[in-house]
Amino acid sequence: MYSILRCFLFCFPPETVHYFSMNSLKFLCRINFFKKIIAKKFQYTHPSLEKKIWNLTFKNPVGLGAGFDKNAKYLSELQLLGFGFVEIGTITPLPQAGNNKPRLFRLMKDKAIINRMGFNNDGVQAIKYRLIEWRKNNSTSNLIIGGNIGKNKITPNEDAWKDYEICFNELFDYVDYFVVNVSSPNTPGLRALQEKDALKKILENLQNINQQKKYPKPLLLKIAPDLTKEQLDDIVELSIKTKLNGLVATNTTIERNKLQTDKNKIEKIGSGGLSGKPLTKKSTEIIQYLAKQLNNQIPIIASGGIFSAIDAKEKLNVGAIFVQVWTGFIYEGPSIVKNICRGLKNE
After folding, report:
1. How many of the other CB atoms lie within 10 Å of CB of 263?
2. Which residue, among 250, 155, 151, 238, has the nearest Cα to 203 in the 3D structure?
3. Domain span at 310
4. How far, in Å, CA of 278 to CA of 135, rounded?
5. Is pTM, for the whole model, over 0.70?
6. What is the count of structural domains for the chain?
7. What is the CATH number for 214?
8. Beta strands 300-303 and 322-325: pairing type?
9. Is residue 312 a contact partner of residue 62, using CB atoms and an 8 Å limit?
10. Which residue numbers are catalytic?
């Protein structure tokens, strides 16, 4: 059924389709009859899928990666589709429009997407108040919400730590965990913050604030798949030193190797982060390396090329504790969570 719908939707620009699809789902979910049907069709629960970590209970290990629900507008709808957790953002202190359109591109032959969104979001204040309202109206919800935070494009790198601090403080009471995003390729200079000294300043500052709270929140770091072995070793060392609670591996890649899509089309699209199937192997290798170097001391959330239960099992088998989908959700449709959970339950 979804494959037919996808053929129709893929006739239109990706960003337009994204908002059309989610707003249509939001409209349907206002009608109790359709809401019940959607929940029955797409949710899958089993005691074996539940996992407790960081004093949080995840109903299943399948989450939605940051960048899909940037502004926390679709939490109820995504919960109905069965996600165990949803990561909102990336959120910046000030609202920003992001990069010029078009900025989202499908590579259908590769089951991939290239994006150069540029942290387009409504800003931390608007998202904070949206979360307050959602929490008030969904007090019994068991959906885990992560806050993916970043810096504004206009903020120089030497002041980046201030932007992360603002987002951390404003969202602290309204998200369940935080992810520091210094790995998007779509904000100029952002990936330079992955270098040891710059990253240390950001993480140590956030942890100092965090540890002064009565109930500190889990603090995670999202890393790029394009890091060298030496850079990964620095991440490992810094993760232990700053007592990070977890890593998200990985963000999108700037590589364009071994793609089936015509080279002229790739060149015409231009810059941006590549996600989807071409990232599967690279992401798995990085997770395996990190898990080994960390001796599984720090949990890893796997992201990158997860389309099926087989993909999810592969990530979990090399050391991840959870998986996040994004591009797989676009290509496989709303049944992806149920299909992955069913496959993991049968393991």
Report:
1. 9
2. 238
3. 2-345
4. 37
5. yes
6. 1
7. 3.20.20.70
8. parallel
9. yes
10. 184
